[in-house]
């Protein structure tokens, strides 16, 4: 393991076994991907089941480091994240689901390449903050947590927060030459 | 020295740029700006060169490229002041492919005096159409109102439209 890695796991959450759900891709005729999501009750059993489904769906998708609820068709402010296996990760909070996330602080933007399960044909260069503070609630207990992170985890969280606001990375690309065909899919 | 604008378009093969630049160098010319890309496997190149020959003479020297089914054009260009807006923005448009997306969105920009300084569009194999343009806008444009107008147009066309200030990577 990279000695510069910092592990800062969140309180453990017991989730039921989740279902693997189909992931919506753009252009999405139902426009769920474009719709800002609404806050939900983190202790609601349906939200806990949704959290489990997001983790299960993320797990079976190679290279997937995060999934927002509207990507599986549910317009709720919930996302799952797990950047532990990514080489650009510095700080990691392990595999977690955050409900009703709120961006508190973001600074030190840097350009980086992003992909998305909902945009399988392209990747894009996006400027994102590399220092980030977000708060949110854990599914089940509803406990409020604060996540202070950096590098790749900060980028991934901002990507998911954008999904919950109805935005794709395509809406934030850095310039006319910042979109690339996803050659690994050819 | 006068400038000549050369465009070369056609089926891609190795060596097109080497062939053209060898002719320009042989004529004592100097390359200024150029931009090349591949569009669906087709070679597309525009260049501006400082050359002391006529457009006709350069076209004659490049005539052999036509044997490769390349379309070559040469035009004299002046040293005009470039049109410059005052503020840089990035426009993104994405959605299902359909006729009229580019015309609609760029028409709305042009109506506000917006000038596109760089543009690329892509159609993914899955049917997702993406346009990203770098745009300069006159200083007196109400950017919030323009953004709202573009978003409304996007809803009409069934595409997402975002207009954001360009951010520099310069540290
Ligand atoms: Zn995504």
Total number of beta strands of chain A: 8
**Spatial separation of the terminal alpha carbons of chain A:** 32 Å
**CATH uppermost class of chain A:** Alpha Beta
Global mean pLDDT of chain A = 94
Can you name the CATH architecture of the largest domain in chain B? Answer: 2-Layer Sandwich
Give helix % range of chain A: 10-25%
- SSE run of chain B: EHEEHEEHEEHE
Identify the overall geometry of chain B.
Answer: globular
Q: Which small-molecule species are bound to the chains here? A: zinc ion
Taking pLDDT < 50 over at least 5 consecutive residues as the criterion, the unreliable ranges of chain A are none
Shape of chain A: globular
Task: Decide which structural class fits the backbone of chain B.
Answer: alpha+beta
Number of helices of chain A: 2
Describe this structure as you would to a colleague:
Chain A is of the alpha+beta class. Chain A has one domain (21-181): Alpha-Beta Complex (Peptide Deformylase). Chain A has helices spanning 45-59, 151-164; strands at 6-7, 66-68, 78-81, 91-92, 96-114, 122-137, 144-150, 179-181. In chain A, strands 2, 3, 5, 6, 7 and 8 form a 6-stranded antiparallel β-sheet that branches. In chain A, strands 1-4 form a two-stranded parallel ribbon. With 171 residues, chain B is an alpha+beta fold. Chain B has 2 domains: 3-78, ACT domain (Alpha-Beta Plaits), CATH 3.30.70.260; 89-165, 2-Layer Sandwich (Alpha-Beta Plaits). Helices cover 26% and strands 42% of the residues of chain B. Chain B is built from 4 helices and 8 strands, in the order βαββαββαββαβ. Chain B has helices at 16-26, 55-61, 101-111, 143-157, and strands at residues 3-11, 30-39, 42-50, 71-77, 87-96, 115-123, 128-137, 159-165. In chain B, the strands form 2 sheets. Chain B has a 4-stranded antiparallel β-sheet with strand order 2-3-1-4, with helices on one face. In chain B, strands 6-7-5-8 form a 4-stranded antiparallel β-sheet. In chain B, helix 3 runs antiparallel to helix 4. The mean pLDDT of chain B is 90. The structure holds zinc ion. Zinc ion binds next to helix 2 of chain A. Zinc ion binds at residues 116, 118, 159, 163 of chain A.
